[in-house]
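User: structure tokens for Ig-like domain-containing protein, please.
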Amino acid sequence: MKTLFLLLLFCHVSSAVKHSLKYFITGSSGVTNISELVAAVVVDGSLAIYCDSNKKILEPKQGWMKKVFEDDPQHFEWATQECFQRGPNKFKVRIQNLKQRLNQSEGVHILQEMFGCEWDDETGEVNGFMQYGYDREDFISFDLKTLTWIAPKPQAVTTKLRWDNDKARIKYNENHLTMIFPGFLKKYLDYGNSSLQRKELPSVSLLQKTPSSPVSCHATGFYPNSATLIWRKDGEEIHEDMSVDLNLSSVTPEDWRRYDCVFQLSGVKNIVIRLDKAEIRTNEGKTGIICDSVLFCLNTNAATYHRTQQHHNSCLLKADQCRISGLTVCFSLQLLTTAPSSLRN
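Assistant: Done. Predicted tokens:
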């Protein structure tokens, strides 16, 4: 069975004043070695709360989050109910319903949900989101503008029609995405301001498994998540899909100096690493770079996971998800224009 653990990775943010609150929840059926429900609450890319229903763990992962629970017992009680009662019961029912609608057996099934909001503290604009994945594929997402559900695949249409007709549920979602969750986010920001506003510079390096493999730019240990990592050629950003392998064999040694990797963190000077053989760390003979953190997360329509076949075989990449603060980022931007089709996802 393929691993169920997906690393939360790199988050592209268009403005330093945008803040985010994201809930990642995974429910399972027929899996004996993981809990029935595991959840994480992430604020501006920092893991704030971890929940494990089977082990009865509801743990604030930040000092300021612990203070929120201490100062607001009702908030702690809400989180407790969601972790140990409402959440597990809701996911158990939904997985069972999906198995019936899709005529599935009793085997292993995974339901994942990501929801929350972004808030711009300059404009006051709030954007809410809610989406589900089932058995590690996109399943259904909520359109807050039209107050309807979007089914990307035919097997989700029945669920879409049912949920579109549940007006009470739609009203509940709208209220939470536009009012309740933004309120939670602002509360968390008030408590965690000193921690969430800090800046930690990364270690940036160039990695290559073998001389014929793509070169990857690797950043680790940075905060906040309002950062980007790009390849440039002659000072211009390369607008290539990051799932495309770019073969260095098509670039002459004289042209290597035209490429560089740029790490951009809001409020600090860019870190630029020029493509130079002397700067490349090789991983020849090893099975891949092991990413050191695990967290269930949702494969969304906005940016699907891409596996880098040549280099980070243990990493699943996602461009539009926030990383957990302080953990390794396996962000692989392949260099060059062509690759054998057998190596592409």
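User: Anything notable?

Assistant: The first strand starts at residue 18 and ends at 29.
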